[in-house]
Specification:
By secondary structure, this protein is mainly alpha-helical. The protein contains 15 helices and no strands.
Length: 349
């Protein structure tokens, strides 16, 4: 029998070229992270709220990996967040308070819960997934509430002590060490996310998000890829929960509540899905608006925050992403024009 050699189509060639394309940092991105580092030096009084922003940004990033890139909807991401928080807290009490190892324990706890429950997500559509994730979070919430001898129950887990970072930097009440630590973790996880979504694995996730049946028809293992990215997102959520435990040194049942999942989704809705920076931008906007209104009207701040969020979502939900995309495209055009100018001058000489 004669082998059937088919020539690659232009589309497959384009896909392979995208897969080989290196991940480049734009000027806007570099400036963003430079400003984030500078905020540690010039905004020392805001380190507590900046620590909260970094933590919720990681949590929103975990949701974006499954929702924005794989099309998996979830209302129970707090289950993974809370698992990481309690695992890290118990590890610090009964084993060691070393922060890096506690962070890894939180990541493993979130990943294990995500992997164990991911097979339930493969049964049914979006509505089924919403109910399953919500049910998993409710079950973990009740387990934590009933096992008060271990988790502290409604009184919260107390007695958490975190050792100094690298043996020298103590976690103070002003959040100086906590913010630097959280920002570094956020940056590392963001870089890993960029590598994931720009890899062939990430491109296959986008194909699954757009059309699962077509992705399966071309040979992409849809179920295995969904389980894998949900497990990775669980590790991210567990790290976010562990960061909360280490910076607050206290855990309550709120880390497993529906409100925590809703906060992560709201942050992602504000910033936008499917481009990684959505969780970070949304976290900054959400926390700053919440803090500013709480200072203006301590009694009715939730009412005004709700009104502003509804207006923002209905009127300008896509504006942050459009603005960032426009600035990034303009920076790319400027870089391209400058490189063309340099090449033309070299040719003239």
């Amino acid at each position: 029998m004669q082998a059937n050699h088919s020539t690659p189509t232009p589309l497959s060639a384009d896909v392979r070229r995208v897969m080989r394309r290196p991940v480049r940092w734009t000027v806007i991105e570099i400036a963003f992270w430079v400003l984030a580092v500078l905020s540690w030096f010039f905004l020392p009084e805001q380190h507590l709220i900046l620590t909260e922003i970094a933590g919720i940004a990681i949590f929103a990033l975990s949701i974006d990996l499954i929702l924005g890139y794989a099309g998996i909807v979830s209302l129970g991401q707090a289950a993974l967040y809370g698992a990481g928080a309690y695992a890290s807290g118990l590890f610090s009490i009964y084993v060691t308070g070393e922060p890096i190892s506690g962070l890894l324990v939180g990541a493993v706890a979130g990943a294990v819960i995500a992997f164990a429950t991911s097979f339930l997500l493969l049964r049914g559509g979006d509505l089924t997934r919403l109910m399953v994730t919500l049910g998993v979070a409710a079950v973990l919430f009740e387990i934590a509430n009933q096992t008060a001898w271990l988790t502290g129950g409604a009184d919260g887990l107390q007695g958490i002590t975190i050792d100094p970072l690298f043996g020298h930097f103590e976690f103070d009440f002003y959040g100086h060490t906590g913010y630097a630590y959280s920002l570094a973790v956020l940056f590392v996880l963001f870089v890993l996310s960029r590598l994931i979504v720009s890899s062939p694995f990430g491109i296959s996730l986008k194909a699954i998000r757009d059309n699962p049946l077509r992705a399966s028809a071309v040979g992409i293992p849809v179920a295995a890829r969904q389980v894998a990215i949900y497990t990775v997102a669980g590790a991210y959520a567990g790290i976010a929960g562990a960061l909360f435990t280490q910076t607050q040194q206290f855990i309550s049942l709120d880390v497993l509540s529906f409100q925590k999942s809703a906060d992560g989704l709201m942050v992602l809705v504000i910033g936008g899905t499917g481009y990684l920076y959505g969780g970070i931008v949304g976290a900054v906007v959400y926390e700053m608006v919440q803090d500013g209104i709480a200072n203006l009207t301590p009694q009715y701040w939730q009412f005004w925050v709700g009104i502003l969020l509804v207006v923002f979502v209905l009127v300008g939900r896509d504006r942050p992403r459009e603005l960032i995309s426009r600035l990034t495209a303009r920076a790319g055009q400027m870089r391209k024009s400058s490189s063309e100018t340099v090449i033309s001058k070299r040719q003239e000489t």
